[in-house]
Amino acid sequence: MRNRREHLVLLIRLGVKHRLYELAWSLAFAVWPAASRLPDRAWWSGLTLWGTEAAIEWRQPARLADILDRAAHVSSLVGDHLTAESYLVRSLAARRRLDDIPGIAATTRVLAELYVRWGRLHKALDAWTETLAAHESRDDLPAVARTLHAIGSTLVAAASLDSARLHLLRAERMYADLEDQALDRDHAETMMLLGRVQLELGTPSIARRTFSGALAKLVDLDDTAADEVRALLAAPASDQRPVVVGGTPTGPLLDIFAAPSLAEELNQGDNPLDEERDQG
Questions:
Q1: What distance lies between CA 270 and its chain's CA centroid?
Q2: Which of 96, 115, 138, 231 is deepest in the core (most CB within 10 A)?
Q3: Among 253, 152, 273, 268, which Cα is nearest to 204's?
Q4: For residue 147, how many other CB atoms are within 10 A of its CB?
Q5: Model's pTM, two decimal places?
Q6: Three-state DSSP class for 240?
Q7: What's the first-to-final CA gap in the chain, in angstroms?
């Protein structure tokens, strides 16, 4: 099997040598999805080297970015963050030269997610900011809202709760203004994380209203998640547990229910979410 892999790299290399750039690139690009199942870093290096060389000689920066993205994905799967970062940075440079806004948005999103897994939260925020700008430039409001949620989640992981609240509140407002039922689950996830932050910041009545808004979105979408939210709102303070809709947000969440006093406060008062909006 190893000899076969080496022969594939040799074929790609020969394609570049004989100026069959499109053929060489296409072969390298097609092989990458299988590469993650065959852990051989020397082989991966050869695929990347000659696949990118084919794209460069072919004078196709978009194809260069595409193959770098695939190489980065495989590197990320095996935890080689440094190599994945180098490939994504090269891919992003190619897409910037092309002014490929959708490509820039997609690549910076993947880069931000990589930095979050890596624990490099400041770099993640820089990447998310560029993702946000790309979506805003295209007036892609659902994507803007999702990116604001991602920024808020990253800020929670960084324990920057005031900034997280502002970004999550902006995302929640945007979902509310869009009034798109297809986005109700995303809206609910944002409201749940926003409610967690509001509770941690000492506004339990507003947090309760936010959780109730999330429940209204979930009733017809996810019975299990809706029941968990109902339990959160109805249970005695001693039984309160964190509720996450759609999976744990990126990064370590604060255990906002660790202090019983905060949980007890959750069932006191019922101020509307608009109060938080006015304060934001």
A1: 32
A2: 115
A3: 268
A4: 26
A5: 0.80
A6: coil
A7: 60
pLDDT in tens, 210-242: 999 999 999 888 888 888 888 767 744 334 444
The DSSP call for residue 249 is P
Please name the residue that has the structure tokens 């929640």. Answer: 172
Q: What radius of gyration, in Å, describes the C-alpha atoms of the chain?
A: 23
Distance, in Å, from the CA atom of 48 to the CA atom of 273, rounded to the nearest integer, reads 51
What is the distance, to the nearest Å, from the Cα of residue 231 to the centroid of all Cα atoms in its chain? Answer: 28
CB neighbour list of residue 248: distance below 8 Å, 6 or more residues apart: none
Question: Nearest Cα to 139, choosing from 189, 108, 178?
Answer: 178
Residue with tokens 């604060």: 254
Single out the residue of 162, 183, 157 nearest to residue 172, CA to CA. Answer: 183
| Amino acid identity for residue 256 in this structure | I
For CA atoms 216, 197, 232, 273, the dihedral sign is: negative
Residue with tokens 């938080």: 276
Complete domains list, the chain, with CATH? 1-6+19-139 (1.25.40.10), 169-280 (no CATH)
* Cα(48)–Cα(42) distance, integer angstroms: 10
The two three-digit tokens of residue 111, written as one number: 């880069």
**Token pair 């004078």 is at which residue?**
59
210: nearest Cα among 162, 165, 252, 179: 165
Q: Which residues of the chain have pLDDT under 70?
A: 1-3, 232, 235-280
Q: Tens digits of per-residue pLDDT, 176-199?
A: 999 899 999 999 999 999 998 998
Q: Which residues contact 117 (CB under 8 A, 6 or more apart)?
A: 76, 81
